[in-house]
Amino acid sequence: MRSQFERLHSTIKRITVQPVVRSVTMPTDHGAPGVLSRPTARLAKRPRDLFELWKEYEFGIGGVKPAKLFNEKERGKAKFVFCFRLKFWVLVEGMLKRGHTSDTAIDAIYLKYRRSKSVTAILTLLRHGKPQRNEF
Fold first, then answer.
1. Which long-range contacts (C-beta less than 8 Å, at least 24 apart) are formed by 90-95?
2. pLDDT digits (tens, 9 = 90+) for 67-108
3. Which of 21, 46, 91, 134 has its CA 20 to 30 A from that of 33?
């Protein structure tokens, strides 16, 4: 009996630490039953940290369309902000292709540019400086 509880506990513990984003689309009523609205394409005004910035790109925040799925017109509406964040998103995607997880990739960026700096300061440093090939 005890081994079953230990196995159940380890399974639950493993599930809880897995990085999963469950997005729930809230149905909106436009007069017709069963009609859902499309998610809007907006970027967050002030993301708290780089993890939230990555979540915005990959999954979207608060029912908003993920930034990686923006079409040309939607990217154009938020052109400056999108381009300002694009360098970070490309850097993390490159690190993912090399075998990092998103969390370890962002931690490596924080390690280089210090966690005490704001998101804007880190994005500015990424924008003006070119990371070396083996840096991340």
1. 91/126, 91/131, 91/136, 92/54, 92/57, 94/136, 95/136
2. 999 999 999 999 999 999 999 999 999 999 999 999 999 999
3. 21
- Could you give the CA distance from residue 50 to residue 87 in angstroms, rounded to a whole number? 12
The whole-model pTM stands at 0.70
Q: Using one digit for the tens of pLDDT, what is the confidence trace for 32-75?
A: 555 556 668 899 999 999 999 999 999 999 889 999 999 999 99
Q: Which residue has the tokens 């280089």?
A: 112
**CA–CA distance, 79 with 76 (Å, rounded to integer):** 5
